[in-house]
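#structure-requests
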Amino acid sequence: MDLAGEGIFVALAAVMAGLGQLWFWRLRLGEERTIWLGCAALVAAGTAVMALSILLVVIFPEGVFPWVQTLVLAILAIFFIFLLMFPIVLVVTLIATGIRLVRSEGRSLRNMLSLGLGCAMVAYVTIWPFVRSALSDVPVFGNVFDFIFGFIALLIALLGTAFAFYTVAGVAVQWPHRHRRYDAVVVLGAALMEDGTVTPLLANRVKRGIELWHLHPEAKLIMSGGQGADELQPESHAMRAFALAQGVPEDAVFVEDRSANTRENLAFTERLREQEELTSEGRLLVVSDDYHVFRALLITRTLGIAADGAGAKVRLYFALNALVREWVAYVDLKRAVFMKLTLAVLALYTAFCLLTACT
């Protein structure tokens, strides 16, 4: 390739990388509460790696600095190996952590979600093709079965892609916005111990909230959580007692003790902020377990609340199973969108099958 051709190639790579970065940071600094943030993050990372690799090859042509060529190949190899190995690593992790969770927490349906998803992914790769092939050969109805299997496969691919975007976005939204001002740090509640005290999981949430409150001393600390049917006191009261024991002053902690779910946590907290005049030009900083933060932020968007999020770390074997639950809850939250997507995919796939059948 001549010098002009190399220049055009580098310019195109730089433009693609720049557009990828622009898209990501536009969402990140604007409205990041969308799964498109995950897509933008992957596009930004992919185009940046490609642009860097192309630039190194052009600046250091083969034979000048051979180690640069090796470095470029290593970067590309690592990137593509990661893409290829990710599904395998995910399946193994889902099954391994799912087995550990079932052994430690019991065989309830909610504890078997990650294990079930991992097994379903294995079955999709190993069993699905044989079942599809067998049913496609059935007289008369073979084409119908093949159409159904093809549509389901396409739908699974789209849902899997959306799940990947959701997961990446859930990580990205928790990167701190260091220069933003917050009126309040709200810690979302969770189930209590039998004696009415906070569980280790909830204690970690409160500790994370206290840590962020120290970083934003202008904010008030709000504990949000009502009283469940099997709880001795409202979750927020136990959380407040724990925070006071950690040295937080009484006048810095407020409680919202009527909520029964995440939406109510956030809606009732916003009412409390208005009643206590805790709203000014700042935002709300939502604290929960790391796997739950993103969905909580999506709910704040539907409620019209300006908010950012931060997560308390949870053990991997528990977090992955909970992430699957969060994804199911997200699909339910966006049920109308997913229904429209399903119908659109069905219409396009039907049209494609009819066109290919006619030709």
